[in-house]
Amino acid sequence: MKGRLSKLRSGLLAATIAAVAVIGLNTTDASAALRNISKESQACLGCHKGMNPALVQQWGVSKHAEAGVGCYECHMANKGDKDAFQHFGFTISTIVSPIDCGKCHPKEAKEVTESHHAKAAQFVGSLDNVLGRIVEGEALFNLGCAQCHGRTIPVKNGLPIMGPWPNEGIGRVNPDGSLGNCAACHFRHSFSLKQVREPDMCGKCHQGPDHPQIEIWELSKHGIAYKAHQSEIEQTLDRAKWVLGEDYYQAPNCVTCHMGATVTGAKATHDVGARLSWTLRPPISKHKPNWEAKRAEMKKVCAACHQKVWVDAFYYQFDNLVNLYNEKFAKPAAQVMKFLRKNKIIDPIPFNQKIEWEYFLLWHHEGRRARHGASMMAPDWTHWHGLFEVAYNFYFKLLPEADKLVEEKGSRSVKRQWKEFKKKLFANPYHKWFHEFNKEELRKIAKFYAERYGQSAQ
């Protein structure tokens, strides 16, 4: 083994020097460039240039290569590490964790490991996990849920086990015990700032029926302005310093609002929740801990483009929408489900009865869309894709299904209680319209349609 390693190393330097121009190091002096790269990393390059040429080229144009940070500096491990294995005389690890990245980037690693992103794998055990892993299946879980959320990565003889691996989830639980995955956003091996600041980077996970942030942003005024000036903004995306109001001004993207620095006092952060004042994910929204301070941080971002009176008025509208969703639909719907479970009309097994799917869609898909639409100034998502569907589901799916179940399975006592529950519900001003619509308003509607379309309201 030693003889083989010696022979391998003796031929690597010449081969690697010849390859420097090809792999993209920003220098015309290959020898000078390689003097910045450790002998261990030179050995890695000697093999992997032939095995994985594009990977080596990606690294070659990176800031890491310019700074002399090579393969070994990131993948080196100690013999006692859980994920360490021997590789041609070197002790390395396949997985580069936030602990490894934190050796050079301590601030960023601390922020990301303390953020909600790093805790994303904790969805295991949730209703989302039941759907993905049990109702749908483990293969889906590995290629769907876990590729965004992350999962615990087991190892055998230092190597990740197939099935759970490969995994690029943001909340990955690494073999060294750390939480998070820098490469979920900072793709190996170029670690391009331009790529990581593109909105599609966030849209990789933040899209779809239950959290369509990328779709919402794209057709908001922010997204439209960004696309109109994209060619100008893209010229700035690879800069180390990227401050709204200094380096660009045309429009914000995801990074701007949730992570970026501004001339109005917002500091760059890798904690994506540092500026969020509401939780918009659960069945009922609540303010986050220390929400006033977090909102003040987001307002610093807003202030780069908007006057204080505008920002305060927007948050007034946003808060009212979240409170409307909570009080009119989310809390009553949760009470319906609690009533059914308490009286054993539905059993403890999740998703084996239709009403459980209806309730899940009401808050997990439709309710989230309404709240996220409001938070990012997208009226169509707030209304038609959001609260309109919440209302339809609540009045014409959830309540009728509950009526049916109580009638089929409830005792006389339970039926009386359910009748009182609904009487109290519809006495609330939010819901009285369902039985007591204002007659004057009805006349206005009929007149509107008659005058506009020449017909009476149907």
From TrEMBL:
Pfam families in alphabetical order: Cytochrome_C554 (PF13435), Multi-haem_cyto (PF13447)
UniProt keywords, alphabetically: Heme, Iron, Metal-binding, Signal
Gene3D superfamilies (alphabetical): Hydroxylamine Oxidoreductase, Chain A, domain 1, Hydroxylamine Oxidoreductase, Chain A, domain 2
Stored InterPro entries: Cyt_c-552/4, Cyt_c-like_dom, Multihaem_cyt_sf, Multiheme_Cytochr_ET
Residues in Cytochrome c domain copies: 132-247
GO MF term list: electron transfer activity; heme binding; metal ion binding; oxidoreductase activity
PANTHER family: C-TYPE POLYHEME CYTOCHROME OMCC (PTHR35038:SF8), DISSIMILATORY SULFITE REDUCTASE SIRA (PTHR35038)
Annotated protein name in UniProt: Cytochrome c554/c'-like protein
Organism: Thermovibrio guaymasensis
